[in-house]
Amino acid sequence: MYNIGFDYEKYLQMQSAKIRERIGMFENKLYLEFGGKLFDDQHAARVLPGYMPDTKVDLLVTLADMAEIVIAINASNIESSKSVGDSGVSYDDDVLRLIDEFRKRNLHVGSVVISQYLGQPAADRFKTYLESLGITVYVMHYIPGSHYPSDIQLILSDKGYGNNDYIETTHPLVVIAAPGPGSGKMAACLSQLYHEHKRGIKAGYAKFETFPIWNRPLRHMIHYAYEAATADLDDVNMIDPFHLEAYGVSAVSYNRDIEVFPILNAMFKRIWGVSPYRSPTDMGVNMAGFCITDDEVCAEASKQELIRRYFNTQLDFAKGNVQKSAVSKLELLMNNAGQTPEERPPVMPALEKADLTGGPCVAIELPDGMILTGKTSDLLGASSAALLNALKHIAGIDDRVPLISPSLIEPIQKLKVGYLGNENPRLHTDEVLIALAISTATNPTAEIVLEQLPKLRFSEAHSSVILSQVDIGVFRQLGINITCEPVYQNKRLFHRN
Known about the structure:
- It is a single chain.
- By secondary structure, this protein is an alpha/beta fold.
- The chain is elongated, with a radius of gyration of 25 Å.
- It contains 20 helices and 14 strands.
- β5 (109-117), α6 (121-132) and β6 form a beta-alpha-beta unit.
- The model has no long low-confidence stretch (mean pLDDT 92).
């Protein structure tokens, strides 16, 4: 069963109230650095069951009357065509996607700011393109690494932040968002504080990130899962020493915020005369910890997320996408948390079925705990077989009842091999679903089975071999959390996705 451990409605109320309260601490002008994924935050939804993937955007909608959004992007990321996570979407394209998504929800996007600008031609082209679309663009100039962020006197001068464009804003809450890390969100906030101060306005700064959850123990499973999710950033959860010294209370922060806080605090004092914050935790406005309704449910969900991340990191290493150090970090986290890969329920059924059949197998654990397996056959890949078996079980249909006629599958195989040049004739998950949908025209049972697709959401799956990106993508679209053993089905060096 899918158990709830987080109160979504309570969170929206508490979080929006906290942000409004923080705005009131200043002269009705708050620059809020928005961290983490803005849309489709599946990590948060997995470790906090009850949290919705678009919760952050839903929160902004509750503040729409007072909020505007500024999107930051690093000029060097434009130049290098850096992409967002596994999606392959470049940062500059993702800026356009973010604007579309915000506008779809009637949220006001005020402008885009290009950070660390050094006259990069790609950044100039992107700026011109945005302006042709009617989007206002500002520029923040590069400050040499030998001076940033330690040389406060230079940074807080006309040669530092003073050399940046002043971002014109019209709302009391200015949310600084970005397509990914390293985009210059914090620098944009601080640059604006400097410019506002020169204009006689005491604007404020705060940081909003869901993780780490400051009022949960350092060794909580939620924090192990967070470190696993940010292994490529080398984030390490730590007790906030400034908060402990100031209040005698333990609060969880992470290394980057703790390392940069003394410099930020000095900047605040220089801009405002006195700093309103005594710790990195003070700067945050995160209320997620107060909305956890069942700690055991969230801890178990986080344990499973840690194991999923372990498999996914090993998969990335097998594909050459990460260094061995990332795998070592996940192995260390697993060891420290006392977890083993076998504690993921579909793992052993998939491996045992593979040993029995001598070929690839996939196991799917349904939300009710039932585990179904699928093996490779002449017609179907293991993923497709497991998917059909799971749908039959949910529909209460005997496993032996045929859903798709071989006479329908064979022409598809002929197309794949004979005309498209594929070496593998077996149907992938997207192809078998299309074949199933076609079968509904003549087979009422197929229609019943197809209608069960939404019930696969929150299922878990594991494959005994590395799956194609097509199969992985379909599982994710269906809301199934898929992991794979980090081995290919064959020993070839080139593997077509």
